[in-house]
Amino acid sequence: MLLSLTELQEMIESSVLEFLANEYDFIKRARSRDADDGIAPQVWRAFAEMGWLGLPLPEADGGIGGRAMESGLLMRAFGRHLVVEPYLNAVLLGTRLIAEAGRAEQRAEWLPDLVDGRRRVVLAHDERGVADPWSARSTRAQEQGNGFRISGAKAIVAGAPGADAVLVSARTETGGLALFLVPLDAPGVTVEACRMLDGARAADLRFDDVQVERAALLGEPVDASEVLGRILAEAIVSECWEACGAMQAALEQTAEYTQQRVQFGKSISSFQVVQHRLAEMAVCCEEALAACQLAVLSIERDPTSAISAAAMAKSKVGRGARFVAQEAVQLHGAMGVSEELPVASHFRKLLAFAQGSGGTAHAGQRYGELMLLSDAWRYSRTLPSLAHA
Amino acid sequence: MNLELSPAEQAFREDVRAFLRDNLTYELRRGQRETSSMYPEPETSGPWQQALQRQGWLVPLWPQEWGGTGWTAVQRFIFESECALAGAPLVHPMGVRLVGPVILRFGSEEQKRRYLPRIMSGEDYWCQGFSEPGAGSDLASLKMRAVADGEDYILNGSKIWTTHAHHANMMFALVRTSTEGKRQEGISFLLIDMNTPGIEVRPIATIGGDHDVNEVFFTDVRVPQANRIGAENAGWDCAKYLLEFERGAGIFSGRLRSQLKRVGDAVGELEASGVDVRGDARLVARFGEVCADLDCFEMMELRIMGALQPGQSPGPVSSILKLRASRMKQAIAELGVEVLGGEALRWRRESAGDSVLPVLVPDYLNSRAYTIFGGAAEVQLGIIAKSVVGV
Ligand SMILES: Cc1cc2nc3c(=O)[nH]c(=O)nc-3n(C[C@H](O)[C@H](O)[C@H](O)COP(=O)(O)OP(=O)(O)OC[C@H]3O[C@@H](n4cnc5c(N)ncnc54)[C@H](O)[C@@H]3O)c2cc1C
Asked: Residue A389 has what pLDDT?
């Protein structure tokens, strides 16, 4: 067993934290939040220069060869600094899906530009009223001649404004789920931009009989459910890491604020009620970290366990995030509901996390179902099972 | 015990309903429905205040000689519940519910004659200048100085979190008139014209994106001593009396129920657009829990408030009501976000027609303030432990 980070992991984590501390403090963050597409060009360029736009890609594709842990560490730092750029949907989903599921010519056409930051592709998967990330979609793709016709709607697609293309998930006539690379300026695509709860930009997308050639299909065979399901699960785990960073930052800010804030002649952190609350928050943060670590280690050990690991982590981190966010605001008093300090932004980030990807409660239900179905609840989650030994 | 209305109570309820039918316009209901912050904007609360004033129902808590209604506690409960359930705007409380009772109790005849009619007519729109950057839960530590100078006081300092100061033409404030002796004994209660030179109001942005609260700066602001309520250095008594009204005199059940209706309407709206909300067993269970909590809150509030004689204040049990009401508010708002699911990720969309959906997320964000203002939850729990439990 190795219970500490590797050298590469430590290097990634410290370089991300150092960059963000210098270039992404709460004041500088505003230039990303206020930028047209929620992306400050110099920030995205810096991400490219540091190699982060290729983090999850093999070195052969110009990447760093990072796995779940590396992505997690980066996302935790992003969460601490409330990065608004659509890293998750563009890199951990868009780029990664092209790298893992794309055909050779698609990889050759897109990956160099994506890793360089010249172009951007995001995944358009979520639909209104469909909570479970792994369930069927209503967007349909019908084969027609030598191509497909896509119809449907995708809701709140993070990073879509300004993206060059989206990967649209759609149900095919055979019942499988296919991914199509569709430029946003294709005829029949409607883009309605909106702002997200955490300051990021997104768009509602409509596809009205959008004609694409067969070459737009990502990979072959048509059914991409397996790879999409797994990579979505890994992205959810990365979101958990991001939430973990935001929770830890909220805890630290609250600890600092309550030590400075004097009422009744003492710092309010000297009241036992406040101390116990801070202590409960700290416990939540530690547990959330454990959930994230367990999830990535399970995935690295057995990629097919990704969905179960994601459901477990989301349930655990989601519940902790709610508690930490609410208490952080409460202990700041009125300051907590104002924009004078970052804590309100952390609250919104953590709310967005809890609501996204099907929501916290749904993840708990999913995990319960998977456990009961598989009997896995009988066995240790950390020690290798005999089958793997 | 029974919950049946007497014939007189029944008739009263019919009167209230008839009044609501005739006066509560679509615009007013819409203004209230679209309010995600604590109080509706003056263009919504103002006309409703006028309608209540014409009917003689604006100030049920005041003595009848000053326009009060002489209602029993049960009548007031009926009135507040019917108004809230019909979707009537919240009357801006700063004048009628907060400073009004203080003027009635501690003000001079002249002050009553000057201010009370203007509160009722809505000519004066009030804000509350209690909190300061250094004085929140520990209100008695407030520092804003008022130094006597001839007939006037000269004010220097600042107030913070002042709700609707940007709309108000009058502020009631606690100021420090002495730094000697006990802190509570050097505070005076002043009425301040917001148009006096030297006052500057700066907005504070808040978590839900509304403009509600402000910071108010005072630089050599002259306020006539005649604007003081009660004796110099006796302002703390006014403040304590006012806080009793702030915490205890509201009837929360109807407002909470109308907020729950907004969530229930959201369920209907989503289902009509093809989203299967009721198919989510966890959500349904949570809905049930919140409903059960609210039902019991209503019974508790009715039992406690309904037992009061006119003018009697509920005392420390009002902390139980305030605490539970604030948490209920948050629980209902959170349920609204749960109902929205992934749609909650959208930030403040424009209101569209009669949709209740746009208001749910800002309402939840703003609901976090309910366990903070008017005495934070921790402070209420302290009062409950001390005065209700008796430890
Ligand atoms: C939306 C909003 C509107 C407001 N409107 C007005 C207004 O119009 N006029 C006005 O005067 N004020 C207004 N306020 C201010 C409000 O009254 C104060 O926020 C409140 O009194 C709490 O003070 P504080 O924010 O300074 O928090 P603090 O007193 O700094 O408290 C911070 C945290 O410490 C806890 N704490 C403090 N003391 C103790 C203790 N002894 N034991 C345990 N825990 C403790 C608190 O409960 C809280 O969780 C408003 C506030 C909000 C949020």
From this structure: 45
Q: Provide, as residue numbers in chain B, all residues whose Cβ is less than 8 Å from the Cβ of A129.
A: 270, 273-276, 341
- pLDDT band for A376, please (50, 70, 90 cuts): confident
Q: How many Cβ atoms are within 10 Å of A336's Cβ, its own excluded?
A: 28
Backbone angles phi, psi at A6, to 5 degrees: -80, 170
pLDDT exceeds 70 at position A158: yes
Buried b (16+ CB within 10 A) or exposed e, A166-201: bbbbbbbeeebbbbbbbebeeeebebeebbbbbbbb
- Helix (H) or strand (E) holding B28, with range, is helix B26-33
Token pair for A190: 């409607």
Question: What confidence tens digit (pLDDT) does each residue in B221-266 have?
Answer: 999 999 999 999 999 999 999 987 776 667 899 999 999 999 999 9
CA distances (Å), B370 to each of B213, B328, B363, in order? 14, 10, 11
Q: How far is the CA of B136 from the centre of ligand 1 (A)?
A: 5
> How far does residue B318's CA lie from ligand 1's centre (Å)?
18
Query: What does the block give as tokens for A84?
Result: 């608004």
pLDDT of residue B248: 64
What are residue B237's phi and psi, to 5 degrees? -65, -40
Chain A residues closer than 8 Å to B346 by CB: 156, 194-197, 202
Q: Under a CB-based contact definition with an 8 Å cutoff, are residues A98 and A111 in contact?
A: yes
* Sequential DSSP letters for B201-254: EEEE-BTTS---EEEEEEEEEEEEGGGEESSTT-HHHHHHHHHHHHHHS---HH
Please spell the DSSP secondary structure of B87-123, one letter per residue.
Answer: TPPPPPHIIIIIIHHHHHHHS-HHHHHHHHHHHHHTS
CA distance B332 to B324: 12
CB burial string A146-157: b at 16+ within 10 A, e below = ebbbbbbebbbb
- Residue A32 contacts residue A40 (beta carbons within 8 Å): yes
- CA torsion through residues B241, B244, B245, B247, sign: positive
pLDDT tens digits, A204-226: 999 999 999 999 999 887 789 99
What are the backbone dihedrals phi and psi of residue A166, each rounded to the nearest 5 degrees, phi first? -120, 155
In angstroms, the CA B66 to CA B293 distance is: 37
A248: nearest Cα among A224, A283, A220: A283
**Residues in chain B with pLDDT < 70?**
247-249, 311, 349
| Residue A115, phi then psi, degrees to nearest 5 | -70, -30
For residue range A36-54, list pLDDT tens digits in order.
899 999 999 999 999 999 9
For atom 53 of ligand 1, the residue with the nearest CA is A334
Q: Taking Cα atoms as reference points, which of B100, B130, B214 lies closest to residue B167?
A: B214
Ramachandran assignment for B233, one of left (phi > 0), alpha (psi -120 to 50 degrees), beta (any other): left
Cα B130 to Cα B59, B93, B137, B381: the distances in Å are: 23, 15, 11, 21
* Both structure tokens of A91: 């890199």
Residue A36 CB-density burial (10 A; 0-12 exposed, 13-18 middle, 19+ buried): exposed
Using DSSP's 3-state secondary structure scheme, residue B160 falls into strand
Of residues A95, A106, A91, A96, the one with CA closest to residue A219? A106
- Please work out whether the CB of residue A326 comes within 6 Å of at least one atom of ligand 1: no
Three-state secondary-structure class, residue B5: coil
